[in-house]
Amino acid sequence: MYLTQGLHRALQQNPDAPLTVFGDRIRTVGESADRVMRLAGAFRRLGIGAGDRIAILSLNSDRFHEYLLATWWIGAVVVPLNIRWAVPENRYALRQSGARVLLVDETFAPLAADLRDDLDTVVHCADGPAPPDMLAYEDLTGGDPVPDARCGGDRLAGIFYTGGTTGFPKGVMLSHANLLVSAMGSQAAVDFAIPGGRLLHASPMFHLADLAAWTAQTVVGGTHVIVPAFEPAAVLSAVETRRVTSTLLAPVMIRALVDHPGLAASELSSLRSIVYGASPIPEETLERAMAALPGTSFVQAYGMTELAPVATLLSAADHAAREHLRTCGRAAPHAEVRIVGPDGAEVPRGQVGEVAVRGANVMLGYWRDPEQTAAAVRDGWMHTGDGAFMDDDGYVHIVDRLKDMIISGGENVYSTEVENAVAAHPAVAACAVIGVPDAEWGERVHAVIVLRPGHTLTHEEIREHCKRTIAGYKAPRSTEFTDELPCLPTGKILKRELRERHWNGQPRSVR
Fold first, then answer.
1. Residues in domain AMP-dependent synthetase/ligase (predicted)?
2. According to DSSP H, which parts of 98-207 are helical?
3. Prediction pTM value
């Protein structure tokens, strides 16, 4: 299969049905397909061919939807950039991927000058005229169409950048088959995407979780309702006015919805399913959401970008049993999941080890990084770095992260990267960064700092310092100052001791 196949099917069966809804703009399947074919033709005329990389830096929109399909239409590779990253991070991703074209919307157009050094072309995604040094998106959709190259299977479909433990993002290579297997396997288990239904994109479309939902809905056929970014009132309005049937939300978004004063007055009876994941969810938040939306089923997905992204699922039926709410579910139909020890052998049920996953959803590897690929994928098994145990019924209980990764508001943050930013401040002698519980964000980035003699520093100062080199969501949200850090004789900082002060035995849940 190939990722444009769903568009061909929809064009054959329902050409006049609405495919995208963005604000007041509604485009049918036929209109959208025509724009995709013409945008693909424009990419070809720019010299882009099979395997070339096309990047995008944009809020959610119907143009993001067209970009995905048009890139795959000519056999090229998508590189969605993180809208929350600082310029140096996205510049690195553009250079490392070798992207030749960058699409930017009006929000990010001002950053283009700092990103375009190694690019052939920058495209301005807006209704009006483009700046002098950019091409206008709407002009590109007015040229001649080209036929679909129908590239699929194990061909590279996208490079998706995720935080790196060495301070640099890693480019996860996913094929058409990776993405389709994960989406269709998940759909087989939880029936999330509804044929003829309406999927709301409120989570960022650059994120692989939302792309997985997009893929499933495109395969089964239906409408994509899109809002630029998550905002509780906008989500409630979209569900009510557009009769949305399903959506994917991070736990922090679910909390914002149940806390919103307009929830009770909103007509949300069309909403049949919410998939959540990407970060821990407090049981209190989940139970409040289930009570507030009694006609909506909830499904939890656990995985990672390298797994395209789903490994396990906690189904709607599982949510009826309270004892399962502390788990991340059981292996999805397309994935083989086991808990292994340091030797790679499976450990007994109930014993903590590392989550390892095998299946056709496992990434092709890290872009231009064979060493990291070999370390992560061994004998076909993706080693997640998550510590967990499996119970006798096959439910996976995440207990800790073997990697020093923090998940704040659904975004991965690697402590090493933040520590590098903190340590660059002249007042800092030593530091450690950990994730601590946070009712709003699931986890927040917390810095523990030892100051140099004679120096002073405030939390606000260290946060602003970090935001100059890393994204704002990675900068510490809380800071404590101490005389020394707990260390082994070798000098290795004992982060477990630091975490135990804050977590008080609570399990650190799924990513």
1. 8-367
2. 137-140, 176-190
3. 0.85
